[in-house]
Amino acid sequence: MTLHITGDAAADQLLTDDPLALLIGMLLDQQVAMETAFAGPLKISERAGTLDAAALSTFDPEAFTELFKATPAVHRFPGSMAARVQALCAAVDQDWGGDASAIWTRPGASGEAPDGATVLKRLKALPGFGEQKAKIFLALLGKQYGYAGEGWRQAAGAYGEEGSFRSVADIVSPESLTKVREYKRAMKAEAKSGGGGV
After folding, report:
1. Residue 17 confidence (pLDDT) above 80
2. Which CATH number fits domain 9-192: 1.10.340.30, 3.30.300.30, 3.40.640.10, 1.10.580.10?
3. SS3 at position 129
4. Please, what's the b/e burial string for 45-64 (b: 16 or more CB within 10 A of its CB; e: otherwise)?
5. Domain extents in the chain
């Protein structure tokens, strides 16, 4: 399994190999192109010298913001997004022992693998993850990251539908990226015209 989201082999490999990178990429995915957002973790890793949750959460905030501003910028809103990434890393460090993948692999109270509804709840508890972002990330885990928890498609809502091209969860090639872009563009146009898109 290798993700193909950014068009940059090194950035995609990091997303594939490092669950925290994938989580950070999802967090950054707002008000910038998807490829820019998901290429962000590689820039952070190279500039900070680490992608360790504890290390990033305790990084000097001003220096971390500067690292976001360096060209090419990690995000068009470097200050607020740097703070969000640090908050996310702090939560992963404190609540999940620094292991982002524990969010979707750590057994629940019953000792069984977490189901889709449980993982969705865990994702929504993370800083910067609202309902929609959590559902898209759950769909990404289920469609491309090997997560097979019971009921994940239902928990992910429309983003979990097979054969859809709604979000980053559906990007596996340049062609699918184009289809997702077209879908997002249509939704924006519909929302602007008062049709109430997603």
Report:
1. yes
2. 1.10.340.30
3. coil
4. beeeeebbbeebbebeeeeb
5. 9-192
Indicate if the pLDDT at residue 139 is higher than 70: yes
Residues 143 and 5: their CA atoms lie apart, in Å, by 13
CA distance 80 to 99: 24
Average pLDDT for 19-41: 96
Cβ-based burial of 174 (10 A; exposed 0-12, middle 13-18, buried ≥19):
exposed
Q: Which residue has the tokens 């539908």?
A: 161
Tokens (6 digits) for 108: 């629940």
As given in the structure block, the two tokens for residue 176 are: 């699918």
Q: For residue 79, what are the CA distances in angstroms to 4, 63, 82, 96?
A: 28, 11, 5, 25
Q: What is the pTM of this model?
A: 0.94
Q: Which residue has the tokens 């997004």?
A: 81
Cα–Cα distance list, 131 to 5, 20, 50, 111, 127 (Å) = 22, 19, 29, 26, 12
In this predicted structure, the answer to whether residue 110 has a pLDDT above a threshold of 60 is yes
